[in-house]
UniProtKB/TrEMBL annotation:
<keyword id="KW-0732">Signal</keyword>
<dbReference type="Pfam" id="PF07980">
    <property type="entry name" value="SusD_RagB"/>
</dbReference>
<dbReference type="InterPro" id="IPR011990">
    <property type="entry name" value="TPR-like_helical_dom_sf"/>
</dbReference>
<keyword id="KW-0472">Membrane</keyword>
<dbReference type="GO" id="GO:0009279">
    <property type="term" value="C:cell outer membrane"/>
</dbReference>
<feature type="signal peptide">
    <location>
        <begin position="1"/>
        <end position="22"/>
    </location>
</feature>
<dbReference type="InterPro" id="IPR012944">
    <property type="entry name" value="SusD_RagB_dom"/>
</dbReference>
<keyword id="KW-0998">Cell outer membrane</keyword>
<comment type="similarity">
    <text>Belongs to the SusD family.</text>
</comment>
<protein>
    <submittedName>
        <fullName>Putative outer membrane starch-binding protein</fullName>
    </submittedName>
</protein>
<feature type="domain" description="RagB/SusD">
    <location>
        <begin position="290"/>
        <end position="595"/>
    </location>
</feature>
Amino acid sequence: MKRSFYICLVTMLSVMALPACNKEFLDRYPLDKITDNTFWKSGNDLEIYVNSFYPKYIIGFSDAWADGTVAPYGVNAAILPYGDVISDNAAPNSYARVSANQYNAHLSGAAGSGGWNYANIRALNYFIDNYEKAPITPAEKNVYLGEVYCFKAWDYFEKVKLFGDVSWLSHSLQTNSPELYAARTPRGEVMDSVMALLDKAIAMLPIKGAEKSGRLNKDMALFLKARVGLHEGTYRKYHTDLKLDPTAYLKAAADASEELINSGRYALKQGTTSSVYFDLFATESYKGNTEIILAKEYSATLNYGAAFSRYFAQNLRHQFGATRSLVDEYLCTDGLTISTSPLFKGKDSIQAEFTNRDPRLTQTIANFGTYNLAVGVTSGADNAPKPNIPGLSGNKCPTGYRVAKWFYNNPVDWDRITNGMQAAPVFRYAEILLTYAEAKYEQGAITQTIIDKTINALRARVGMPGLTIGQEPADTRLDNIYHQYLSYPVAPLLREIRRERRVEMAFENTRWHDLMRWKAGRLLEVPVEGIKFVQAQFPKVVINKDVYLSSEGFLLPYYKTLPTGRTFDENKQYLFPIPIADIVLNKNLGQNPGWEQP
């Protein structure tokens, strides 16, 4: 059954009186249009109310122009493919303030901005306060309540990642509610409540296949529990100053992952090793795809789409490229690192360094001539990804490592503009495999059997050799980086588990959060470099005018704009600041460490 979310369609089916799919209705804040005397009269009312939350949390590529930004990250509204631009995986043409330690509390803006917004929490709580009024069976009510619990847990998880301690609200508030002026709830209490909500949601939601089309099911809540458990468990383990026990969260991550793995309902998509990974991200439908647990799809019939494929193909949003930091982590085809493999051809050109590498490298980043338009197609002829560095025409790739993952080679879809139909995989089974391996390692319970069914399954899909515990490949390059930038040692097996996550999940909005939970923010300070510049390949590009090079000849995208490089302040940057305007309204909120104003 398709795990897509045609929000308009669901609403139309629920409210037959609506003559068409009304976008304004979907965006309307429910509390402003609902009166208790006329609402909560049927299961239909509950469904209508909950419908409005789906596009708020299942964002995918956003919708319409998708030209807004997500606060406080400063990332394009299609955060799934663009979230990594603030991490060490990517370099946007204009460097990101967040990763350059140039974000401050005043940039958060007005009250309720900068990520500190509780409008959706209030709406979710309003449902919790009123849903029982509907004259339907408890079982029918609980399905919608399970959805609301899942969304509320999701919302608070995102808030905790941003701010640590946040304001836990159990009920919808009024203008005179004392909670509006209360101190923040400690992180430990909030996360315990988040996990409790997820457990309730898992118990209430239908099993896969029994849910109404396009709605949440039990497996989706299990996935979220695994993601939450891994993030919180590892955050607590490496941020020892919190003095919070990670044990229960690591166990929750492992158990939820194991349940999904053992269910037999999911499997990695298979295909030709040279294209299977790329193909997974370039489609209009995930119907029948056993790797996708949750996706957002769009509907041409309902005039519901997003301007994603066109602008990604043009590299218009952020005008970004991948970094050498990411590229250097891909193994060679013998399973060895570039530090040790005899198959590595060196870095004298992008063609050389992409030879004999993990096939996911060329399915994630474009080499010359690897992504061409179909024969006879002239529309968007400059759109196919290639190393389009500064000094050339078109939207620049500042590192030369142009990201090809998510490139949908379909000029018809580009011409749809705001009605683009490219589908977005929101929850992917591959992440569950990675979560399971990492959680079991952090529990001290990793085995070769677990590695085989997780890390090695991902590698086998693209024809890469497996990983054997105790025979991890040497990597002096990466070990030296970890030694220089991290405050703790990383064992070879953990290094390989983290490597696999970085490679498999590149440009799926996980890297920033991984750095934060691993207490590895200083990896952002690794110098940002691009491809080796070869003048013969770029005869019209002028050195020290169009591009600037390192002593080894690698592109330096921020040589002029950020000459001292990116910095990360470990005393404050693992959390974002509470907006100043909100602290003015409620001084009891306090400010996160390091963000206090002088």
